TrEMBL record:
Pfam families: HATPase_c_3. CDD domains: HATPase_SMCHD1-like. GO terms for biological process: double-strand break repair. It comes from Onychorhynchus coronatus (Royal flycatcher). This is SMHD1 protein.
């Protein structure tokens, strides 16, 4: 790596957890991307990119807008799809100590690409591994483990509050993907964990699937 003998360095996960003798077996597993840095909080000199390989469940595409929204039979299913996307933001902002901000934007400006639906919140943010797990079909927010934690890691069911503030819509971790591909042809998740300087981005597309 071209490291001088008198130069200090650290090896970290993409979550900026330093690899040590004590946590090596826990954090270093097949397929894990590692950073070689001068310090844990070093700014990255350029964007890193990794391909996530997993077998998407066929229901993600085949039954998008039908299976998960059976309760809306005979009605316009679009509100149910949007509810699934908003549920991610409700969960992400459930621990906010300040104002919970969730915005829904409909973008029709072709100069910025194809039309899109954007859901934006000021929640806790997701690490690269949490984004990875979000992509996996039928991975419940209650069963995701370890450093490969979910976007709902440590999830605690909210205290009884008006239903619009709860986050139990995607209880089985199914709806988000189907909602995305019911509304459009691709998903782009951009997230910055509250305690991190790194911004993580995940892109899924029907074409790739």
């Amino acid at each position: 790596f071209g490291i001088a003998t008198d130069e200090n360095f650290v090896i970290t996960t993409t979550n900026r957890k330093e690899i040590t003798e004590d946590n090596f077996s826990e954090l270093v597993q097949d397929g894990v991307t590692l950073y070689l840095l001068q310090s844990v909080d070093q700014m990255l000199v350029l964007a890193t990119k990794e391909r996530i390989d997993f077998l998407p469940h066929y229901d993600t595409l085949v039954k998008s807008g039908m299976y998960e929204y059976y309760a809306s039979e005979g009605q316009n299913p679009l509100p149910f799809a949007l509810a699934e996307l908003i549920d991610n933001s409700l969960s992400a902002t459930s621990q906010n100590t300040g104002i919970r901000s969730i915005q829904i934007k409909l973008l029709f400006d072709d100069s910025q690409g194809k039309p899109a639906v954007a859901v934006i919140d000021n929640g806790s943010g997701m690490t690269s591994k949490q984004l990875n797990n979000w992509a996996v079909y039928r991975l419940s927010k209650f069963t995701r483990q370890g450093d490969f934690e979910s976007d709902h890691s440590g999830y605690v069911r909210p205290l009884p509050v008006p239903r619009s503030l709860n986050s139990d819509i995607s209880y089985f971790g199914v709806g988000g993907k189907q909602a995305v591909f019911f509304v459009g042809q691709s998903a782009r998740m951009i997230s910055k964990p509250a305690e991190s300087q790194d911004v993580h981005e995940l892109v899924l597309s029907k074409e790739d699937f």
